[in-house]
Design a protein that fits this description.
By secondary structure, the protein is of the alpha+beta class. Helix content is 35%, strand content 17%. The longest helix is centred in the N-terminal third of the chain and has 29 residues, at 226-254. The chain binds manganese (II) ion (MN).
């Protein structure tokens, strides 16, 4: 979106920045000096850190401690399980120009989005209109300014010292409902931004530490769950005020000049350490990975506009170029075009995804800030999902494009670490986070409501180079994630948990397997009408494992309408607590009714009623290394722990195991050896040279003999990137005038 040029407004007599400089001028100067010197604020030496490193560390710890403390304290004000149980919030401290200095734990993705939002206010002349004063409160959830989706609501509080703006405190929480056309925080099926809910574009909503009454009134009526909106907002503001208090007391103790110098050195220090890490931990080169997302809106014909009710296969490739001098360039050339669906991101959202991926790989310590942003470059084709040329596209499920894209970064870095010998750092990608259980309708309290269940912030973690992944552990976007207690979700959602357990064979197999995914079986309770979504890739794998490891298994939908559960309970008959092995489905066996069993996820909601059943399959992590190199005793362990369906021990791992009278699985070493040798021979017999395979497939590629969603994916990638098209044409040996 084009912003109005407010530069005329910047001609104020005295600004609120250092020595009366307008902050927009300070931001412009900062960017110019970085372009000229390559150092943040032109800081070539780190005098504070060099002269007294202990004092430097103490200041860093004090600020970081204040942010983590603010988060831990403030989350108790919120009533939403997403914030309280999952910890889906984060606080950050920024320079007056909007550069991140330090952050708390939590949804760290947002540290850079809030930086973009502050810079938007600074560049747009907020200093003069609406004004930035001590005690002001600003709010933002506009992904085109600085956010991922409207569900993430941010609050900003400027910090003043003797009339000068010295910093910003900011906090973000994820909301259960945002007043979108469809219920829940991240509804599926919005085709434009106008259906994405209440959008607040860096609005000033308070002064003198009080929210404006007109805004408060609006927030009572703008979403389906005002109770959570209001308490989450109090949580964010309280956290920002705690951060402000801590900063002012630090300035009191250390002096304002030291604080200013610290902020500059902290950012420059992180930038340098990022470059050093790149040089020492990776091998320079070009690393490329592809990912895919399937949307199944053709089943929504009649419920969506005709142009939106189509199936789509999204291409989400990533190329990482590491230079010998430690440069870090990401390119998303080849990405699909934005669409009339909810999976579009924005450039600031893409920065958020990059940020949170880096905090779990290259900078897994407490020294994270915008220095890392300054050390990286991200290029996104204009018009693609990461930088739509339509400012009105919907963004509610931007993570649905971001997670697949950045699993490519995890795999690229994993390969780069392994090449350098840092094998402990390798992760074979990240699984998608889902199924996303969301819905709305009449609640068990008899009120119109909406909800987003965040147990999907706990999925299996992928395998490493030297170890298996952790089960039901965390999400890419919130590494501190938790699944939340069932009782907490049952308080706000009219669905009882009948069971929640690890699922066998959800993890990607490999020499090292991913951590297991899990499942929840839920029954509608106390409601006659709920709209429920099933959101996750299902028809295609999002990405592969690494170094021959298999991807995590894909989930599926198995919900049951018009069940006999009421009668079963009355007669004390068995009821399903798990689906487990889909070939011997626990749901199929233990409930009668209309079974909806398919791979059509990522679609509009369906309507359910009391005693209907809903299955949520949460993903496992991807595998690493060749399956037939897995230690057979580990395969037996997986069988004994119920993590692997027995049929895959033989068919995939080539492990011959038998179950003893005690129920324990034991490996037959000799038979396993013979079986694995046979698998090796069979692989050799089946394989063909790559050149042969390419020649065999080329006619199909030449004619673009694919189903329509795949053809369209090719067409869009070619249209948006000449580079991608020419490499594709070259790879397949196609005519120069080839068209998808
Ligand atoms: Mn969010």
């Amino acid at each position: 979106m084009k912003l109005t040029d407010y530069s005329g407004d910047l001609m104020v007599a005295r600004g609120i920045g250092y020595e009366g400089k307008p902050i927009a001028q300070a931001l412009e100067d900062s960017e110019q000096i970085f372009r000229q010197t390559g150092c943040y604020q032109g800081v070539r030496e780190l005098p504070l850190k060099s002269a007294d490193p202990i004092r430097f560390e103490k200041i860093a710890s004090r600020l970081r401690g204040a942010l983590v403390g603010a988060r831990e304290t403030a989350l108790n004000i919120s009533a939403s399980p997403i914030v309280r149980e999952i910890g889906e919030l984060c606080f950050g401290l920024y320079t007056p120009e909007g550069d991140s200095v330090t952050l708390s734990t939590g949804i760290m993705a947002h540290i850079h989005t809030m930086s973009e939002a502050i810079k938007h206010m600074v560049r747009s002349g907020y200093e003069t209109n609406p004004g930035i004063a001590d005690g002001d409160i600003f709010i933002n959830n506009d992904p085109h300014i600085g956010d991922v989706h409207t569900a993430d609501v941010q609050q900003f509080v400027p910090i003043f010292w003797q009339g000068e703006l010295i910093a910003w405190a900011a906090g973000v929480t994820h909301e259960l409902d945002v007043g979108a056309a469809q219920p829940s925080g991240m509804p599926m099926g919005s085709t434009t931004r106008f259906e994405d809910g209440w959008i607040l574009s860096c609005e000033k909503v308070g002064s003198k530490d009080e929210l404006r009454r007109d805004y408060q009134y609006r927030s009572q009526t703008a979403t389906r769950m005002p109770f959570y909106w209001v308490l989450d907002e109090k949580c964010r503001i309280a956290g920002c005020h705690l951060v402000r208090k801590a900063v002012l007391s630090l300035v009191e103790a250390e002096g304002i000049d030291t604080f200013r110098q610290f902020c500059r050195e902290a950012i420059e220090d992180t930038r340098r350490s990022f470059v050093t890490r790149m040089k020492s931990m990776t091998v320079p080169g070009t690393y490329r990975f592809g990912s895919f997302i399937d949307l199944n809106h053709s089943v929504d014909v009649g419920r969506m506009p005709e142009h939106a009710a189509v199936d789509t296969l999204i291409h989400a490739p990533l190329e990482l170029k590491i230079g010998a001098e430690g440069s870090f360039d990401i390119s998303l050339e080849g990405a699909s075009k934005w669409g009339y669906h909810s999976f579009n991101a924005t450039p600031t959202a893409m920065q958020a995804g990059l940020w949170v991926a880096l905090t779990q790989t290259l900078i897994p310590n407490d020294k994270v800030n915008d220095g890392a942003y300054l050390a990286t470059r991200l290029s996104i084709p204009h018009g693609s999902l990461g930088d739509p040329d339509n400012p009105y596209c919907s963004n509610t499920l931007a993570w649905g494009y971001m997670v697949p894209t950045y699993t490519g970064l995890m795999r690229a870095l994993g390969t780069a670490f392994a090449s350098r010998g840092y094998v402990e750092e390798v992760l074979s990608g990240i699984p998608l986070t889902g199924n996303v259980t969301q819905g709305g309708g009449v609640s068990h309290y008899g009120q119109e409501m909406a909800w987003s269940n965040f147990e999907m912030s706990c999925v299996g973690i992928s395998a490493g180079y030297v170890k298996d992944g952790e089960h039901s552990c965390a999400a890419m976007w919130n590494p501190e994630g938790d699944m939340g207690d069932v009782e907490a979700w049952e308080l706000i959602e009219p669905l009882m948990y009948l069971g929640r357990r690890l699922r066998p064979s959800t993890a990607g197999m490999g020499k090292y397997r991913g951590g297991s995914g899990w499942e929840s079986v839920r029954m509608l309770h106390g409601t006659q009408r709920q709209e429920l979504y099933n959101l996750i890739n299902s028809r295609v794998f999002c990405s592969g494992g690494l170094f021959g490891g298999y991807p995590a298994s894909n989930p599926y939908r198995h919900n049951v309408k018009r069940t006999d559960l009421k009668e079963r309970f009355a007669k004390q008959l068995p009821y399903p607590v798990a689906d487990g092995n889909p070939e011997e489905s626990g749901i199929q066996a233990n409930v009668s009714g209309e079974h909806l069993r398919d791979h059509l996820m990522n679609r509009l909601s369906d309507t359910y009623e009391e005693y209907d059943l809903y299955l949520s399959v949460l993903l496992g992590g991807h595998g690493l290394g060749d399956v037939i190199e897995r230690d057979p005793t580990k395969v037996a362990d997986d069988l004994n722990e119920g993590l692997l369906l027995p049929r895959f021990a033989l068919s995939a791992y080539g492990v011959v195991a038998t179950q003893g009278d005690d129920g324990k699985w034991r490996v037959d070493g000799d038979a396993t050896h013979v079986r694995r040798e046979a698998i090796r021979k069979n692989r050799l017999a089946r394989s063909v040279p790559v050149t042969e395979w390419i020649a065999q497939q080329r006619p199909r590629v030449e004619k673009c003999d694919f189903i329509e969603p795949v053809r369209r994916m090719h067409r869009e990638s070619c249209e948006l990137s000449k580079k991608w098209r020419s490499e594709y044409v070259e790879f397949w040996g196609l005519q120069q005038d080839w068209n998808a």
